[in-house]
Write a structure and sequence with these properties.
alpha/beta; 5-stranded mixed beta sheet; 4-stranded mixed beta sheet; 18 helices; 13% strand
Protein backbone atom coordinates (compact mmCIF):
# COMPACT_ATOMS: atom_id res chain seq x y z
CA UNK A 1 0.00 0.00 0.00
CA UNK A 2 1.30 3.46 -0.90
CA UNK A 3 0.67 5.78 2.03
CA UNK A 4 1.50 9.31 3.07
CA UNK A 5 4.78 9.62 4.91
CA UNK A 6 4.38 11.25 8.29
CA UNK A 7 7.03 12.49 10.69
CA UNK A 8 9.08 9.55 11.91
CA UNK A 9 8.75 8.96 15.65
CA UNK A 10 11.90 7.97 17.49
CA UNK A 11 11.34 5.01 19.86
CA UNK A 12 14.45 6.13 21.79
CA UNK A 13 12.78 9.47 22.54
CA UNK A 14 9.54 8.91 24.42
CA UNK A 15 8.50 11.46 27.02
CA UNK A 16 6.37 10.14 29.88
CA UNK A 17 4.49 12.61 32.06
CA UNK A 18 2.88 9.86 34.16
CA UNK A 19 4.35 6.83 35.86
CA UNK A 20 2.71 3.45 35.24
CA UNK A 21 1.02 3.73 38.64
CA UNK A 22 -0.34 7.18 37.84
CA UNK A 23 -1.59 5.98 34.46
CA UNK A 24 -3.43 3.12 36.11
CA UNK A 25 -4.88 5.51 38.68
CA UNK A 26 -6.37 7.61 35.86
CA UNK A 27 -7.72 4.47 34.16
CA UNK A 28 -9.28 3.20 37.39
CA UNK A 29 -10.80 6.61 38.12
CA UNK A 30 -12.42 6.64 34.67
CA UNK A 31 -13.93 3.20 35.24
CA UNK A 32 -15.24 4.41 38.58
CA UNK A 33 -16.85 7.45 36.89
CA UNK A 34 -18.50 5.20 34.31
CA UNK A 35 -19.70 2.78 36.98
CA UNK A 36 -20.98 5.27 39.56
CA UNK A 37 -21.67 8.60 37.83
CA UNK A 38 -22.31 7.31 34.32
CA UNK A 39 -22.70 9.21 31.05
CA UNK A 40 -25.82 11.03 29.94
CA UNK A 41 -27.16 10.17 26.47
CA UNK A 42 -30.06 12.36 25.32
CA UNK A 43 -30.93 9.97 22.48
CA UNK A 44 -33.44 7.25 23.34
CA UNK A 45 -32.00 5.05 20.59
CA UNK A 46 -28.49 5.42 22.03
CA UNK A 47 -29.70 4.48 25.51
CA UNK A 48 -31.57 1.44 24.23
CA UNK A 49 -28.47 0.20 22.43
CA UNK A 50 -26.24 0.68 25.46
CA UNK A 51 -28.69 -0.99 27.82
CA UNK A 52 -28.90 -4.00 25.51
CA UNK A 53 -25.09 -4.10 25.45
CA UNK A 54 -24.88 -4.33 29.25
CA UNK A 55 -25.28 -0.78 30.56
CA UNK A 56 -27.70 0.13 33.37
CA UNK A 57 -30.01 3.07 33.91
CA UNK A 58 -28.77 5.34 36.69
CA UNK A 59 -31.04 4.91 39.72
CA UNK A 60 -31.80 8.64 40.12
CA UNK A 61 -30.47 10.59 37.14
CA UNK A 62 -32.58 10.72 33.99
CA UNK A 63 -31.03 9.71 30.65
CA UNK A 64 -27.85 8.58 32.38
CA UNK A 65 -26.38 5.14 31.66
CA UNK A 66 -23.85 3.56 34.00
CA UNK A 67 -21.38 0.95 32.81
CA UNK A 68 -20.07 -2.05 34.71
CA UNK A 69 -16.31 -2.32 34.75
CA UNK A 70 -16.35 -5.51 32.68
CA UNK A 71 -18.30 -3.82 29.88
CA UNK A 72 -15.84 -0.93 29.63
CA UNK A 73 -12.81 -3.20 29.68
CA UNK A 74 -14.38 -5.52 27.11
CA UNK A 75 -14.95 -2.50 24.86
CA UNK A 76 -11.31 -1.42 25.23
CA UNK A 77 -10.26 -4.93 24.24
CA UNK A 78 -12.20 -4.65 20.97
CA UNK A 79 -10.64 -1.43 19.67
CA UNK A 80 -9.24 -1.45 16.15
CA UNK A 81 -5.48 -1.24 16.46
CA UNK A 82 -4.55 -0.74 12.81
CA UNK A 83 -6.09 2.41 11.41
CA UNK A 84 -6.02 3.60 7.81
CA UNK A 85 -7.73 6.83 6.78
CA UNK A 86 -8.39 7.08 3.08
CA UNK A 87 -7.72 9.89 0.62
CA UNK A 88 -8.99 10.82 -2.81
CA UNK A 89 -5.42 10.19 -3.98
CA UNK A 90 -4.49 6.70 -2.77
CA UNK A 91 -0.84 7.74 -2.40
CA UNK A 92 -2.00 10.08 0.38
CA UNK A 93 -3.77 7.46 2.52
CA UNK A 94 -2.71 7.74 6.16
CA UNK A 95 -1.59 4.53 7.84
CA UNK A 96 -1.38 5.04 11.59
CA UNK A 97 1.32 2.45 12.21
CA UNK A 98 2.53 3.72 15.59
CA UNK A 99 5.83 4.77 14.05
CA UNK A 100 4.86 8.12 12.51
CA UNK A 101 3.19 11.36 13.51
CA UNK A 102 0.72 13.16 11.24
CA UNK A 103 0.18 16.85 12.08
CA UNK A 104 -2.73 18.69 10.53
CA UNK A 105 -4.57 21.99 10.33
CA UNK A 106 -8.20 22.47 11.03
CA UNK A 107 -10.01 24.35 13.72
CA UNK A 108 -13.35 24.93 11.99
CA UNK A 109 -13.12 28.53 13.15
CA UNK A 110 -15.88 31.00 12.23
CA UNK A 111 -13.35 33.78 11.63
CA UNK A 112 -10.21 34.41 9.58
CA UNK A 113 -7.17 36.63 10.02
CA UNK A 114 -7.27 38.44 6.69
CA UNK A 115 -4.22 37.78 4.51
CA UNK A 116 -4.10 41.37 3.23
CA UNK A 117 -5.15 43.50 6.20
CA UNK A 118 -4.27 41.27 9.16
CA UNK A 119 -7.64 42.05 10.74
CA UNK A 120 -10.04 39.42 12.10
CA UNK A 121 -13.22 39.00 10.05
CA UNK A 122 -15.91 36.34 9.39
CA UNK A 123 -14.51 33.53 7.26
CA UNK A 124 -15.79 32.86 3.74
CA UNK A 125 -16.13 30.11 1.15
CA UNK A 126 -12.99 31.46 -0.54
CA UNK A 127 -11.09 31.21 2.77
CA UNK A 128 -12.02 27.52 3.03
CA UNK A 129 -10.80 27.00 -0.53
CA UNK A 130 -7.49 28.75 0.14
CA UNK A 131 -6.95 26.88 3.42
CA UNK A 132 -7.60 23.52 1.76
CA UNK A 133 -5.38 24.33 -1.22
CA UNK A 134 -2.55 25.58 0.99
CA UNK A 135 -2.89 22.50 3.21
CA UNK A 136 -2.82 20.28 0.14
CA UNK A 137 0.64 21.68 -0.64
CA UNK A 138 2.18 21.73 2.86
CA UNK A 139 4.24 18.67 3.78
CA UNK A 140 3.25 18.70 7.45
CA UNK A 141 -0.49 19.02 6.91
CA UNK A 142 -1.48 15.41 6.45
CA UNK A 143 -5.24 15.57 6.29
CA UNK A 144 -7.77 18.26 5.69
CA UNK A 145 -9.96 19.35 8.57
CA UNK A 146 -11.54 22.60 7.55
CA UNK A 147 -9.46 25.54 8.75
CA UNK A 148 -12.54 27.81 8.86
CA UNK A 149 -16.23 27.76 7.94
CA UNK A 150 -17.91 29.20 4.83
CA UNK A 151 -20.07 31.82 6.55
CA UNK A 152 -20.99 33.77 3.41
CA UNK A 153 -23.47 31.09 2.26
CA UNK A 154 -27.03 30.45 3.54
CA UNK A 155 -26.76 29.27 7.17
CA UNK A 156 -28.41 25.95 6.39
CA UNK A 157 -25.71 25.15 3.82
CA UNK A 158 -22.60 26.20 5.78
CA UNK A 159 -21.51 22.61 6.50
CA UNK A 160 -22.10 21.35 2.96
CA UNK A 161 -20.52 24.32 1.21
CA UNK A 162 -17.53 24.09 3.55
CA UNK A 163 -17.09 20.46 2.54
CA UNK A 164 -17.51 21.36 -1.13
CA UNK A 165 -14.73 23.95 -0.88
CA UNK A 166 -12.49 21.41 0.87
CA UNK A 167 -12.98 18.44 -1.43
CA UNK A 168 -12.40 20.53 -4.57
CA UNK A 169 -9.06 21.76 -3.23
CA UNK A 170 -7.37 18.78 -1.60
CA UNK A 171 -6.66 15.13 -2.37
CA UNK A 172 -5.84 14.32 1.26
CA UNK A 173 -8.09 12.52 3.79
CA UNK A 174 -10.80 14.79 5.18
CA UNK A 175 -12.29 15.19 8.65
CA UNK A 176 -15.64 16.96 8.66
CA UNK A 177 -18.35 18.00 11.10
CA UNK A 178 -22.09 17.40 10.89
CA UNK A 179 -24.43 19.10 13.38
CA UNK A 180 -27.35 16.71 12.74
CA UNK A 181 -28.51 13.70 10.73
CA UNK A 182 -29.86 15.79 7.85
CA UNK A 183 -26.48 17.44 7.25
CA UNK A 184 -24.72 14.11 7.66
CA UNK A 185 -26.94 12.43 5.07
CA UNK A 186 -26.19 15.12 2.50
CA UNK A 187 -22.47 15.05 3.34
CA UNK A 188 -22.49 11.29 2.83
CA UNK A 189 -24.18 11.72 -0.56
CA UNK A 190 -21.54 14.25 -1.60
CA UNK A 191 -18.70 12.00 -0.43
CA UNK A 192 -20.27 9.08 -2.31
CA UNK A 193 -20.20 11.19 -5.49
CA UNK A 194 -16.44 11.57 -5.05
CA UNK A 195 -15.82 7.94 -4.04
CA UNK A 196 -17.76 6.50 -6.95
CA UNK A 197 -20.88 5.38 -5.13
CA UNK A 198 -22.19 4.35 -1.73
CA UNK A 199 -20.52 0.94 -1.73
CA UNK A 200 -17.18 2.39 -2.81
CA UNK A 201 -17.48 4.91 0.02
CA UNK A 202 -17.98 2.03 2.47
CA UNK A 203 -14.83 0.35 1.16
CA UNK A 204 -12.79 3.54 1.22
CA UNK A 205 -14.48 6.21 3.38
CA UNK A 206 -12.87 9.45 2.21
CA UNK A 207 -14.17 11.34 5.23
CA UNK A 208 -14.36 10.86 8.97
CA UNK A 209 -16.80 12.69 11.22
CA UNK A 210 -15.81 14.47 14.42
CA UNK A 211 -18.17 15.49 17.19
CA UNK A 212 -17.72 16.72 20.74
CA UNK A 213 -19.81 15.49 23.66
CA UNK A 214 -20.90 18.25 26.01
CA UNK A 215 -18.65 18.10 29.03
CA UNK A 216 -19.18 17.04 31.66
CA UNK A 217 -20.25 13.54 30.63
CA UNK A 218 -23.10 14.30 28.21
CA UNK A 219 -23.79 13.18 24.65
CA UNK A 220 -26.55 15.37 23.21
CA UNK A 221 -29.29 13.96 21.00
CA UNK A 222 -27.83 15.27 17.74
CA UNK A 223 -24.37 14.09 18.74
CA UNK A 224 -25.69 10.57 19.35
CA UNK A 225 -27.73 10.57 16.14
CA UNK A 226 -24.77 11.66 14.02
CA UNK A 227 -22.46 9.15 15.69
CA UNK A 228 -24.83 6.24 15.07
CA UNK A 229 -25.76 7.23 11.50
CA UNK A 230 -22.12 7.80 10.62
CA UNK A 231 -20.87 4.39 11.71
CA UNK A 232 -23.96 2.68 10.26
CA UNK A 233 -22.89 4.18 6.92
CA UNK A 234 -19.35 2.85 7.37
CA UNK A 235 -17.84 6.27 8.10
CA UNK A 236 -15.46 6.57 11.08
CA UNK A 237 -16.63 8.81 13.92
CA UNK A 238 -14.25 10.48 16.38
CA UNK A 239 -15.67 11.61 19.75
CA UNK A 240 -13.62 14.65 20.81
CA UNK A 241 -14.28 15.63 24.45
CA UNK A 242 -13.29 19.22 25.21
CA UNK A 243 -13.60 19.77 28.97
CA UNK A 244 -12.42 23.13 30.29
CA UNK A 245 -10.63 22.71 33.62
CA UNK A 246 -12.45 24.82 36.18
CA UNK A 247 -15.65 25.14 34.12
CA UNK A 248 -16.77 21.87 32.52
CA UNK A 249 -14.06 19.71 34.08
CA UNK A 250 -12.08 19.53 37.33
CA UNK A 251 -9.37 22.15 37.87
CA UNK A 252 -6.69 19.48 37.93
CA UNK A 253 -4.90 17.67 35.16
CA UNK A 254 -5.49 14.25 36.72
CA UNK A 255 -9.20 14.83 37.28
CA UNK A 256 -9.70 16.30 33.81
CA UNK A 257 -7.89 13.36 32.21
CA UNK A 258 -10.09 10.90 34.10
CA UNK A 259 -13.29 12.70 33.08
CA UNK A 260 -12.43 13.10 29.41
CA UNK A 261 -11.27 9.49 29.34
CA UNK A 262 -14.69 8.40 30.62
CA UNK A 263 -16.28 10.56 27.89
CA UNK A 264 -14.12 8.93 25.22
CA UNK A 265 -14.92 5.43 26.49
CA UNK A 266 -18.64 6.26 26.57
CA UNK A 267 -18.48 7.19 22.90
CA UNK A 268 -16.43 4.08 22.11
CA UNK A 269 -19.03 1.82 23.74
CA UNK A 270 -21.83 3.50 21.78
CA UNK A 271 -19.94 3.06 18.50
CA UNK A 272 -19.39 -0.59 19.28
CA UNK A 273 -23.13 -1.19 19.57
CA UNK A 274 -23.01 -0.83 15.76
CA UNK A 275 -19.57 -2.12 14.78
CA UNK A 276 -16.11 -2.89 16.11
CA UNK A 277 -14.46 -2.76 12.70
CA UNK A 278 -14.19 0.97 12.01
CA UNK A 279 -11.12 2.90 13.14
CA UNK A 280 -11.46 5.43 15.92
CA UNK A 281 -8.83 7.86 17.10
CA UNK A 282 -8.40 8.53 20.81
CA UNK A 283 -9.11 12.26 20.68
CA UNK A 284 -9.25 14.85 23.43
CA UNK A 285 -8.92 18.61 23.73
CA UNK A 286 -8.68 19.43 27.44
CA UNK A 287 -8.00 23.11 28.10
CA UNK A 288 -7.96 25.40 31.13
CA UNK A 289 -9.96 28.33 32.43
CA UNK A 290 -8.02 31.48 33.22
CA UNK A 291 -9.36 32.35 36.71
CA UNK A 292 -8.66 36.04 36.09
CA UNK A 293 -10.94 36.32 33.06
CA UNK A 294 -12.93 33.09 32.69
CA UNK A 295 -11.39 32.70 29.24
CA UNK A 296 -10.21 29.26 28.14
CA UNK A 297 -6.45 29.24 27.55
CA UNK A 298 -4.30 26.84 25.51
CA UNK A 299 -0.76 28.16 25.09
CA UNK A 300 0.42 27.06 28.54
CA UNK A 301 2.69 24.31 29.91
CA UNK A 302 -0.32 22.58 31.48
CA UNK A 303 -1.83 22.16 28.00
CA UNK A 304 1.38 20.53 26.79
CA UNK A 305 1.31 18.20 29.81
CA UNK A 306 -2.33 17.18 29.39
CA UNK A 307 -1.79 16.44 25.69
CA UNK A 308 1.18 14.24 26.57
CA UNK A 309 -1.00 12.53 29.18
CA UNK A 310 -3.63 11.83 26.52
CA UNK A 311 -0.94 10.17 24.41
CA UNK A 312 -0.10 7.82 27.28
CA UNK A 313 -3.75 6.94 27.83
CA UNK A 314 -4.22 6.19 24.13
CA UNK A 315 -1.16 3.95 24.15
CA UNK A 316 -2.51 2.20 27.26
CA UNK A 317 -5.56 1.19 25.19
CA UNK A 318 -3.69 0.44 21.97
CA UNK A 319 -5.42 3.39 20.26
CA UNK A 320 -4.13 6.10 17.93
CA UNK A 321 -3.63 9.33 19.88
CA UNK A 322 -5.08 12.53 18.42
CA UNK A 323 -4.23 15.51 20.61
CA UNK A 324 -4.06 19.25 20.69
CA UNK A 325 -0.75 20.65 19.49
CA UNK A 326 0.57 24.11 18.71
CA UNK A 327 -1.43 26.75 20.56
CA UNK A 328 -1.01 30.33 21.68
CA UNK A 329 -3.22 32.74 23.58
CA UNK A 330 -1.58 35.99 22.55
CA UNK A 331 -3.54 38.21 20.15
CA UNK A 332 -0.63 39.54 18.11
CA UNK A 333 2.55 38.40 16.42
CA UNK A 334 5.41 38.36 18.91
CA UNK A 335 7.97 36.22 20.75
CA UNK A 336 5.41 34.80 23.18
CA UNK A 337 3.51 33.24 20.31
CA UNK A 338 6.58 31.41 19.04
CA UNK A 339 7.49 30.15 22.50
CA UNK A 340 3.97 28.87 23.16
CA UNK A 341 3.72 27.24 19.73
CA UNK A 342 6.93 25.29 20.15
CA UNK A 343 6.17 24.28 23.75
CA UNK A 344 2.67 22.97 23.07
CA UNK A 345 3.71 21.28 19.84
CA UNK A 346 6.95 19.70 20.96
CA UNK A 347 5.89 18.10 24.25
CA UNK A 348 3.11 15.83 22.86
CA UNK A 349 5.35 15.05 19.89
CA UNK A 350 8.08 13.87 22.25
CA UNK A 351 5.44 11.78 24.03
CA UNK A 352 4.77 10.00 20.72
CA UNK A 353 1.51 11.59 19.51
CA UNK A 354 0.43 10.03 16.22
CA UNK A 355 -2.06 12.72 15.22
CA UNK A 356 -1.62 16.29 16.36
CA UNK A 357 -3.46 19.50 15.51
CA UNK A 358 -2.50 23.14 15.61
CA UNK A 359 -1.27 24.03 12.12
CA UNK A 360 -2.95 27.35 11.31
CA UNK A 361 -4.34 28.45 14.67
CA UNK A 362 -4.57 32.18 15.27
CA UNK A 363 -6.40 34.21 17.88
CA UNK A 364 -9.88 35.44 18.80
CA UNK A 365 -11.49 32.30 17.34
CA UNK A 366 -9.81 32.90 14.00
CA UNK A 367 -7.39 30.95 11.84
CA UNK A 368 -4.57 32.17 9.64
CA UNK A 369 -2.97 31.09 6.37
CA UNK A 370 0.34 32.58 7.52
CA UNK A 371 0.08 30.46 10.67
CA UNK A 372 -0.34 27.37 8.51
CA UNK A 373 3.01 28.08 6.85
CA UNK A 374 4.67 28.88 10.19
CA UNK A 375 3.18 25.79 11.84
CA UNK A 376 4.38 23.65 8.94
CA UNK A 377 7.90 24.96 9.51
CA UNK A 378 7.72 24.40 13.27
CA UNK A 379 6.83 20.77 12.61
CA UNK A 380 9.85 20.49 10.31
CA UNK A 381 11.96 21.52 13.31
CA UNK A 382 10.07 19.13 15.61
CA UNK A 383 10.70 16.36 13.08
CA UNK A 384 14.40 17.12 13.26
CA UNK A 385 14.32 16.96 17.07
CA UNK A 386 12.49 13.63 16.95
CA UNK A 387 15.13 12.17 14.64
CA UNK A 388 17.84 12.56 17.25
CA UNK A 389 21.25 12.11 15.69
CA UNK A 390 23.21 9.29 14.16
CA UNK A 391 26.34 7.86 15.76
CA UNK A 392 28.37 5.53 13.51
CA UNK A 393 31.70 5.37 11.71
CA UNK A 394 30.50 7.60 8.88
CA UNK A 395 29.20 10.38 11.10
CA UNK A 396 32.02 10.28 13.64
CA UNK A 397 34.64 10.88 10.97
CA UNK A 398 37.64 9.93 13.08
CA UNK A 399 39.88 9.67 10.01
CA UNK A 400 38.87 13.20 8.98
CA UNK A 401 39.57 14.53 12.46
CA UNK A 402 43.00 12.92 12.31
CA UNK A 403 43.64 14.24 8.79
CA UNK A 404 42.66 17.81 9.63
CA UNK A 405 44.74 17.67 12.76
CA UNK A 406 45.36 20.57 15.09
CA UNK A 407 44.15 24.06 14.18
CA UNK A 408 42.96 22.80 10.75
CA UNK A 409 39.61 23.30 9.03
CA UNK A 410 36.80 21.00 7.88
CA UNK A 411 35.18 23.27 5.27
CA UNK A 412 36.89 21.73 2.24
CA UNK A 413 36.49 18.13 3.36
CA UNK A 414 34.12 15.82 1.46
CA UNK A 415 32.84 14.56 4.83
CA UNK A 416 31.36 18.03 5.48
CA UNK A 417 29.43 18.14 2.20
CA UNK A 418 28.29 14.52 2.47
CA UNK A 419 26.77 15.15 5.89
CA UNK A 420 25.14 18.39 4.79
CA UNK A 421 23.57 16.58 1.84
CA UNK A 422 22.16 13.82 4.00
CA UNK A 423 20.52 16.37 6.28
CA UNK A 424 22.78 16.61 9.33
CA UNK A 425 21.84 20.31 9.37
CA UNK A 426 18.33 21.38 8.36
CA UNK A 427 18.28 24.57 6.30
CA UNK A 428 14.95 26.34 6.72
CA UNK A 429 13.45 28.31 3.87
CA UNK A 430 11.40 30.41 6.31
CA UNK A 431 13.44 31.27 9.41
CA UNK A 432 15.73 34.28 9.10
CA UNK A 433 19.33 33.18 9.77
CA UNK A 434 21.14 36.14 8.16
CA UNK A 435 23.85 38.09 9.90
CA UNK A 436 22.80 41.44 11.34
CA UNK A 437 24.92 43.23 8.74
CA UNK A 438 23.27 41.46 5.85
CA UNK A 439 19.80 41.96 7.33
CA UNK A 440 20.47 45.68 7.75
CA UNK A 441 21.61 45.95 4.15
CA UNK A 442 18.85 43.85 2.59
CA UNK A 443 15.99 44.88 4.88
CA UNK A 444 14.13 43.06 7.64
CA UNK A 445 10.68 41.47 7.48
CA UNK A 446 8.66 40.24 10.45
CA UNK A 447 7.98 36.51 10.29
CA UNK A 448 4.30 37.02 9.43
CA UNK A 449 5.25 38.98 6.32
CA UNK A 450 7.72 36.33 5.21
CA UNK A 451 5.04 33.68 5.80
CA UNK A 452 2.55 35.79 3.84
CA UNK A 453 4.90 35.79 0.86
CA UNK A 454 5.15 32.00 1.10
CA UNK A 455 1.36 31.68 1.22
CA UNK A 456 0.89 33.79 -1.89
CA UNK A 457 3.58 31.89 -3.76
CA UNK A 458 2.05 28.51 -2.89
CA UNK A 459 -1.49 29.60 -3.76
CA UNK A 460 -0.24 30.93 -7.09
CA UNK A 461 1.77 27.85 -8.02
CA UNK A 462 -0.02 24.87 -6.44
CA UNK A 463 -2.95 23.30 -8.26
CA UNK A 464 -4.73 20.45 -6.46
CA UNK A 465 -5.84 17.40 -8.41
CA UNK A 466 -9.18 18.49 -9.90
CA UNK A 467 -12.40 16.57 -9.48
CA UNK A 468 -14.01 15.05 -12.54
CA UNK A 469 -16.66 17.35 -14.00
CA UNK A 470 -19.34 14.69 -13.61
CA UNK A 471 -18.47 14.44 -9.91
CA UNK A 472 -18.78 18.21 -9.52
CA UNK A 473 -22.17 18.20 -11.24
CA UNK A 474 -23.35 15.35 -9.03
CA UNK A 475 -22.26 17.21 -5.88
CA UNK A 476 -23.96 20.38 -7.12
CA UNK A 477 -27.18 18.40 -7.46
CA UNK A 478 -26.85 17.21 -3.84
CA UNK A 479 -26.29 20.77 -2.61
CA UNK A 480 -29.35 21.96 -4.56
CA UNK A 481 -31.39 19.15 -3.05
CA UNK A 482 -30.11 20.09 0.41
CA UNK A 483 -31.04 23.73 -0.12
CA UNK A 484 -34.69 22.76 -0.49
CA UNK A 485 -34.58 20.97 2.86
CA UNK A 486 -32.09 22.92 4.98
CA UNK A 487 -32.54 26.54 3.88
CA UNK A 488 -35.49 28.21 5.52
Amino acid sequence: MLVMKGIKLNPNIRLRVMTDDQLETIHEASLRILERTGVRFDSEEARKRLLRAGGTNHPTRKRVVTFPRAMAEDSIGKVTHHNVYYARDRKLDIDYDGEHMFPYAGNGDPKMIDLDTGSVRPSTFEDVEMGARLGDALENNHYSSSLVMANDVPPGLVVLKTFEAMVKNTSKPMAVYAPDKANLDFLTKMAACVAGGVEELRKRPLISISGSPSSPLTYGENNCDVLLRSVENGIPFQPVPCPICGETGPMSIGGALAQQNAEVLGGLMLIQTVTTKLPMLYSGRVCFMDPRTGRDIWGIPEEALVSAGLVQLARRYGMVSDVNGMSSDITRWDMQMGLEFMMTGLVPALAGAESISGVGGGWEGASSLEMMVIGNEVFHDISKLLQGFQVDDQTMGLDIIDKVGHMGGFLAERHTMDNLRRGELRISSLWDKRTSGRATKEGYKPIQETARDHVRKILKEHTPEPLDRDVVRAMDAVVNEAAETLVR
